[in-house]
Design brief:
Layout (H helix, E strand, L loop, with lengths): L8 H5 L1 H6 L17 E2 L3 E6 L14 H10 L4 E3 L5 E3 L2 E6 L4 E6 L13 H12 L17 H4 L14 E5 L2 E5 L7 H4 L16 H6 L7 E7 L3 E6 L13 E6 L3 H9 L5 E2 L10 H5 L3 E4 L3 E7 L11 H9 L3 H6 L7 E2 L24 H10 L7 E7 L5 H15 L2 E7 L2 H10 L5 E7 L5 H9 L13 H11 L4 H17 L5 E6 L2 E5 L3 E2 L15 E3 L1
Parallel strand pairs: 2-11, 16-17, 16-18
Antiparallel strand pairs: 1-22, 3-4, 5-6, 6-8, 7-8, 9-10, 10-11, 12-20, 13-20, 14-18, 14-19, 15-19, 21-22
Helix pairs in contact: 10-12, 15-17, 16-17
Length: 543
């Protein structure tokens, strides 16, 4: 997901990459679909996994849930393929000082149950999501709003149920007052958690999460747990991205390999990521149905800083482990050249991405690795574990990383497989990761802030490793309160450099993702955004 306003740099910085995401076989927007034409009511079968949480916009952080929610809800703003801001449910999002923002909604929008989408639909949803008693994973996204601490105190119960900074002006207008200036605040409004909610949500939020009612191009039909989620086209949808098909079945597969086999045999229509096993041959298998496109995502190893023996780890130890990983060889062989070695904590195609900020600490150097580990006091118990989800196609590269570390340093490295992504995430959230876990992040908005603050700020909801550094937090805050976007980006670049050179790295960068995906012979016009989400509403089903 992307989002923002008044950022013409995007047109020059990522327009080429965004345009490239439109590639992927098929016949574009043609209405012919070969000899038989297209079926406007045809159902698209997308290979997916089981969402970690209920389908509540402010409680979803995993890609499986995010893919579904993107179809059920439409944000205030989004990006078009030219890299420019596109108003979705919003008529405008404006601010003169980056602290007080005015949102005007388009008229005539309704939820799937017929209720009108109003300013109150947004304000009530954000107040509820931010409230600590409602335990929403994405509640921290609202912390910039004035009065957040009243509904989400560090300790105890909230003193209020509404944030002071949110005001309904009329049915189509509301204002957002922030605690401080945030130059990139409008970028954030495209993320799922800012979605509106209908009044029926508050009657029973848990029941709603099982049968959500949104304002997007698709409406919910059914959820057969761990098997399939079905959505159908919402014919009264007012947005610019109306569905060109009758609906989507998000079919649950146990492994990435099973997903690939299903698409190859036309039992499923779209796979969003080809597993390592099939990377060497997927272009031969699928031909012009193979997708190879840019993506703003990164793979990392993230340490649980609360793990026994690792609480006060010397930064040299983490630098040594990083230098023990032969990224070049692993990306060329195990990953068949479909990834690029990473030397930063942010992904390409972002404002503020610095590709070599990690310097020598993200380059393979066995001798430096052994020296740094020794000088840092050694690896606790001389052993590390790499936790990963077995259903994501990660087994091969995790084993390769462990072999590289073991051979370069003599430190024992053990892959720690979990059956699925849901289990993996639950263990991260509980703080029970033995040492390292497979980290991964794709953009929510195309600024370096998104990759740094959302994961490494001390209180960030996605900071599962519990990295915490006062100087880093101060640099993040400095960036947040800057007068301009350019100054914000520079402060975050300073923080990233500091994390590599002065303190323990919060994560060890491995490689940058690309979208390596594919589709069946039954569909056309399959495209992906920079977050690797399939743009399902554009997919056309052949008759």
């Amino acid at each position: 997901m992307r989002g923002a306003k008044s950022a013409k740099w995007v047109a020059s910085a990522i327009v080429v990459a965004l345009a490239a995401t439109a590639c992927g076989g098929g016949s574009g927007d043609s209405d012919e679909g070969g000899k038989g034409g297209y079926d406007p009511d045809g159902i698209v079968k997308l290979a997916n996994s089981e969402p970690q949480a209920l389908l509540q916009p402010a409680n979803s952080q995993d890609t499986a849930g995010g893919q579904v929610i993107k179809g059920l809800f439409t944000p205030l703003v989004d990006w078009d393929e030219k890299g420019e801001l596109q108003m979705m449910n919003a008529e405008s999002v404006e601010s003169d000082d980056a602290q007080t923002w005015t949102v005007k909604l388009k008229k005539g929008w309704t939820f799937h149950d017929g209720e009108e989408v109003t300013a109150k639909s947004y304000v009530d949803a954000w107040n509820w999501a931010a409230n600590i008693e409602n335990e929403q994973k994405n509640s921290y996204w609202f912390e910039d709003i004035k009065g957040y601490e009243d509904v989400h105190p560090e300790k105890g119960k909230p003193s209020k149920t509404e944030m002071e900074g949110l005001k309904v002006v009329d049915d189509q207008t509301f204002t957002i007052e922030l605690k401080n200036k945030v130059s990139y605040f409008d970028f954030k409004l495209a993320y799922n958690c800012w979605s509106p909610l209908p009044s029926k949500f508050y009657d029973d939020p848990e029941a709603y999460g099982k049968k959500p009612v949104g304002n997007g191009p698709y409406k919910f039909k059914s959820w057969d747990r761990k098997k399939k989620i079905s959505v159908v086209r919402f014919d009264d949808y007012k947005g610019p991205d109306k569905a060109k098909n009758g609906g989507v079945d998000y079919v649950n597969y146990q492994t990435a390999e099973a997903e690939y086999d299903a698409v190859k045999s036309d039992k499923a229509d779209i796979i969003t990521m080809v597993p390592p096993r099939d990377l060497p041959k997927y272009k031969d298998d699928l031909g012009d149905r193979a997708v190879d496109a840019p993506m703003a995502g990164i793979q990392t190893l993230q340490l649980n800083f609360k793990a026994k023996g690792w609480e006060d780890v010397d930064p040299l130890v983490l630098r040594g482990i990083s230098q023990a990983i032969d990224r070049d060889t692993i990306t060329k062989t195990v990953l068949n050249g479909t990834r690029d070695p990473a030397n930063s904590l942010t992904a390409p195609n972002l404002q503020g991405h610095e590709p070599e900020v990690g310097g020598d600490y993200a380059k393979f150097d066995p001798e430096a690795a052994k020296k740094n580990i020794k000088d840092g006091g050694g690896v606790p118990n001389d052993e590390i574990f790499l936790q990963y989800n077995a259903d994501g196609g990660h087994k091969e590269w995790v084993e390769a990383v462990c072999n590289s570390i073991r051979q370069a340093t003599g430190v024992e490295c053990t892959p720690d497989s979990k059956p699925d992504f849901q289990t993996d995430l639950n263990i991260r959230e509980s703080g029970d990761v033995k040492t390292f876990y497979r980290g991964g992040w794709v953009l929510d908005y195309p600024v370096n802030v998104n990759f740094l603050k959302e994961q490494y700020f001390s209180t960030a909801g996605a900071n599962y490793g519990k990295f915490s550094n006062k100087k880093v937090d101060e640099l993040f805050k400095k960036g947040d309160q800057a007068e301009t976007l350019e100054e914000t980006v520079k402060a975050y670049q300073e923080a990233e450099k500091y994390m590599f050179e002065e303190v323990a790295m919060p994560a060890i960068p491995l490689w940058y993702y690309k979208t390596n995906a594919g589709h069946s012979t039954k569909v056309d016009n399959v495209k992906f955004d920079l977050a690797n989400f399939a743009i399902v509403q554009d997919v056309q089903v052949k008759k």
